Please model this.
Amino acid sequence: MPKPPKLPQGMPTPAQVLDFIQSSDIPAGKREIAKAFGLKGQEKIKLKALLKDMAEDGLIDGKKSAFHRMGGVPKVTTLRIVAIEDGDLIGEPDNWDPEAPGKPPRLTIREPRPRPGVKRPPALKRGDRVLARTEETESGAWIAHPMKKLPSRTEGLMGVVEIDKTGKAWLAPVDKRVRQSTPIADVGEAEAGQLVIAERVGRSDRAGVKVIEVVGDPLAPKSFSMIAIAKHGIPHIFPEEVLEEAPRAAKLKLSDKTREDLRHLPIVAIDPADARDHDDAIWAEPDGQGGFNALVAIADVSFYVRPGSALDREARKRGNSVYFPDRVVPMLPEVLSADVCSLKEGEDRAAMACHLHISGEGKVTSFRFTRALVRIAHNIAYEDAQAAVDEGKPPEYLVNLWAAWKALAAARDARDSLELELPERRVVLDEQGRIASIAIRERLDAHRVVEDFMIAANVAAAKALEAKTAPVVYRIHEPPSREKLIALRDYLATMGKKLALGQVVTPGLFNRMLKDISDEAEKALVMEAVLRSQTQAYYGPANAGHFGLSLGSYAHFTSPIRRYSDLLVHRALVDAYKLEQPAPPGSFPPASGLSDRDRASLQQVSDAISQTERRAMEAERDTIDRYVAAWLSGRVGEVFDTRITGVQAFGFFATIDGLGGDGLVPISTLGGEYFRHDEAAKALVGSESGTTYASGDRLKLKLAEANPLTGSLKFVLPDADARAIEPRGNRPDDRNRGPKKAGKFMAGKRGRPGNIRHQGRKK
Model:
């Protein structure tokens, strides 16, 4: 075996360090690098500084015991198997840093070949975790060689203590995807039935876990958000240095000499009644020529949160605030997010002002940005603003806002942006934190007024930065992929509808499709199918337009208290339009524009905040599901009007009308015949009776289970003889057919592709 080439001795360059890390057969940490280059004494201290600089410059990642190229994979690491492609298992790093550039690398798993006399390890499958040795091929592809299978994780290592008949303690999961409990080796002071946080005490599941914190009553509403925080790894405790820095930042003085003074304008902030912070406020008045002068005032967070500060590092890490019914996990400490930065009625506040001129046709004909001093005239709830307008005697500031909005709405209609009215569930808690009500949030014109003003300001911000060829963090929504359009076309075909793929696909195409459907149930069904065909919006420095809004350039500018993306847009505007407001010398970082790090890592930070946004959405949705399950836990056995929202081979999911909360109807509860899964039609079809359960069908279901800990619901048919489904009337073979009844005997052939065999009750 040839010896590796001898490396030059002495302090290496960054390029030499990278070459060594990538060519090393073993994990290369600080010790290995120092040994390879013969470093001693003070040179080791210099190496430590060099490695720190390389990490900050985005060249390397990892820890002092094992570095790897940024964007690469450590020599030995933990992988999670996420897919099977062309017969190969595909893995991704289990602990991928969300701030790492690009998407997680995908590695092809190469399982060891069987050897005579050696027991073959269990086959790996999707979801498994493995410790693997990795290598990068000359083509840049990654290969992973599994060393051993690792125990599955207990989500967030949070669960409920259960004691079995033998006195053994178990950690029951609080995630509906985790089916098995974990043994507790050390229960500490926890008692049966308590929600706890635990940590592993060994490398295998058999070793169990140790309770490290008792959260308390698992059914207390406050526990539902804590479960989501732990499960999704959401940072919710601010470091001491951040808490110490926040009050100093809050004391930064505002100057009416260096800021545009807008305190004389009756600017209003229209928000939810339970809003925890107020990012934005609006004002408009007629210009006397059929158009409007308007203002969108946004909290000037960039004045307080400056690049290089501890506040900025933590905000960058969090990416966004996360909102739960009982609490908010803010991006910024409360002294800033809920006080100094929040646009409160009657208080002088720093604002980034977007001045707009809106024509009578609703087009923004000009815009400019300034740093301003504002004093909000009113904080008003959406419902109160709407009531004032509906009663016919609104104050003048609302009359002007509604008039300007009607012009903006007309322009929005003209560009034909995607119109999907999707229900949003709202959980209302009483003073004790208990659930008072859960309902679908009503969509008001007041919501649309604020939304259209925000869209106008966001477009202006993107175009203003483009005009200066300045960096932009765009909000990007790409058109649907061809694969999703084909799936949508095939699904619509099962309903007797056509989608021609030869034409240019625009939001207007979907709008016209929905407008032609008179039946509300069918419209909801098609709307959900259209939604599933859409790509997920994300952040990025390379513009690809916003398909849903029919806009060529779009950035998020209007919520810097709760979104890091908006803070970066504000900083870019500060630089591009020379709006710097320096802090007093020595008291805080002086610059409030984009730092060199911001400019060099826009792609990296865009990827990271796109991931934290998805994390927040999942956590918020999980928590609402738990509240809904808790709300329904006392109504098990009741029959509800539901609608099927999804169909799989193992059963279908249904949601309660007017409440939400998807629950599973297992295929094993449908009766005694085979059911074939028709993937294109999103339906289960009885092979003998023709009984069909399809996405969108409305039917009555009985609630069989409601688990607040996992947020899961389970439904069953009310009884074997009453399985009437409201006919959809939207497929040729369904029209005028009427209710259908399931057969009472087994049908179909065992093993037939696409058929699912399930047993009915034994007689």
User: Anything to note?
Assistant: The radius of gyration is 29 Å. Residues 602-632 form the longest helix (31 residues). DSSP finds 17 helices and 35 strands in the chain. The domain at 14-69 is CATH 1.10.10 (Arc Repressor Mutant, subunit A).
